[in-house]
Amino acid sequence: HLESTVGLVSKGLAAGEVYHSVDFDPLCQRVLLAHNPTHVFKDILHLIRPLARIEVQKVMAKNEARVVELAEQSRTAATQKLKQEAKLELTKIGESLLGQLMECMDNFTYAELLSETAPCAKHHGSQNPCYIHPPDGHASRLKDKDYYMAGTSCTDWSSMGLQQSLAGHTVLPFAIELQLIRRKRPRVYFHECTRFFRPAILQTYLTGS
To answer: Which terminal residue of the chain, N or C, has fewer Cβ atoms less than 10 Å from its own Cβ?
Structure first.
């Protein structure tokens, strides 16, 4: 659907196929399965190796208490001024948190960071490995259709959501997404979110990718 929206073919790009999708929620996994991708992976954390997984979760845990405290201050603030002050501090912590996560993963080489296979909702009973990225034979067929389409969860960005932006728990899957783009260097990358998302964040971490 996104291919049609952005008009890939009209821009001279070949129509692609969905090699893999990722979603933590079982209901969303069923929706993704209906589009018949090659794989539907169950958790973006599985896309990185166990040691890297442990290290990024340590970074999240180190910041969690302060994020919870500021979120509560924002929610219960007696005045608009106090509410804005708490939100501004949350924004600063979120930007720092994303930086810490990216720096943490930068310490790993490509092979140390990225998993080759992951648990798949489509082939959960299969004995065959489900490759996160197309194996060599498949990849050669898709070389002109290397498109990545992703989106920051609206939970932390929407005006109807938590409004924690990068300080929310969804910053971790976003950081993994950024690492994938930096290291895989796809031909085209689309990122979707609410109007409150700041595109400058992508420029900060993906310039030159």
So the answer is: N
